[in-house]
Specification:
The protein is α/β, with parallel strands linked by helices. About 25% of the residues lie in helices and about 30% in strands. It contains seven helices and 21 strands. Strands 1, 2, 5, 6, 7, 8 and 21 form a seven-stranded mixed sheet that branches. A five-stranded parallel sheet has the order 10-17-11-12-13. A three-stranded antiparallel sheet has the order 14-15-16. The longest helix is centred in the last third of the chain and has 21 residues. The protein is elongated.
Length: about 325
């Protein structure tokens, strides 16, 4: 697709639960949606082994299997899938213009479902045990560590919330923070201190995660290093990296209203809840939601974005 520009009624960026759900609803409305998958096809669930909280999958489902079903469902209604990565957009006029590594695109309505990426420390051992004891999401994977010893790395709201959540599941939570002050809300820190007093959470302040330890079975422990370079090892089964998420919104900077990097949508009770600050541009999933971050909520907003796009196109005479 060298010099030709591909036009579509509805272009969907991203191929996680939000993007695929938007495609299913848009396709059923005869909008002939096109999905540009992005580099991480399938989104964050591709790195999650067991998904135990997807409603109606009674016995749980593997993340990659669930995403394959999403894709097949979208394709069943003739959604066109394009493997490309968009690096430039112009939302100043309609049709909107997008430039990918492999082609150029225009569309009358745009649904942004580019998601967010969990931030990781960048250790080789962290990558090696991803999905085998290393996780970026306690609410996704905490269940598998019932009665086990786990660690949480971080010092902000995310880390404190995950430590508290895991303290009700795991036998013990080691909370590892490179400083001595937590950046979380005061009430959250108080709750952590109550759990510390009860022996459910153990603090390791002024400590960095030096290496994730493990073998064929998965994670078996972690090595910490304090500010003086002294190391110690902890035996545990799960290591949760909770240093935050980065929404994949860099290419929209300066063109859409954002808060802390997340796209702002209208919300409210008047329809067009998923509309951004630009008419005809909608956002769904983790790219506009840093609070819930679940597959089910992403899928729900994907559905909403497609219905909003359909209504928008009808009102603007494009469909």
């Amino acid at each position: 697709m060298s010099n030709t520009t591909k036009h579509s009624n509805v272009l969907i960026l991203g191929s996680g639960p939000a993007g695929y759900s938007a495609a299913i609803y848009a396709a059923r409305a005869s909008l002939n949606p096109v999905i540009v998958t992005g580099m991480a096809q399938g989104g964050q669930l591709m790195t999650t082994t067991e998904v135990d909280n997807w409603p109606a999958d009674v016995h749980g489902v593997q993340g990659p299997d669930l995403m394959q079903r999403f894709q097949q469902h979208a394709e069943r209604f003739n959604t066109e899938m394009i493997a490309d990565h968009i690096h430039k957009v112009d939302l100043s006029q309609r049709p909107f213009r997008l430039q990918g590594d492999n082609g150029s695109y225009t569309c009358d309505a745009l649904i942004i479902a580019t998601g967010a990426s969990a931030k990781y420390l960048g250790l080789a051992s962290e990558q090696a045990f991803m999905g085998r004891g290393v996780s970026g999401c306690a609410t996704c994977d905490g269940f598998f560590y019932r009665g086990d010893v786990v660690a949480v790395v971080g010092g902000g709201n995310t880390a404190v919330e995950e430590a508290l959540y895991l303290s009700n599941i795991a036998s013990k939570v080691h909370l590892i923070h490179r400083r001595d002050k937590f950046r979380a809300e005061a009430i959250m820190i108080e709750k952590v201190m109550e759990k510390v007093a009860a022996g459910k959470i153990e603090l390791h302040l002024f400590n960095n995660l030096d290496e994730v330890l493990g073998d064929e079975s998965g994670v078996t422990g972690v090595r910490l290093k304090d500010n003086d370079g002294v190391t110690k090892e902890l035996a545990l089964k799960g290591c949760f990296i909770a240093i935050g998420h980065h929404p994949n919104t860099d290419i929209f900077q300066g063109q859409l209203a954002m808060k802390d990097g997340y796209i702002v949508t209208r919300g409210g009770q008047d329809g067009f809840a998923t509309m951004t600050s630009v008419d005809g541009v909608f956002a769904a999933g983790d790219v506009q939601d840093h609070i819930y971050r679940q597959a089910i909520t992403s899928a729900g907003t994907g559905c909403m974005a497609a219905l909003d796009a359909q209504r928008f196109l009808e009102q603007s005479g494009n469909h």
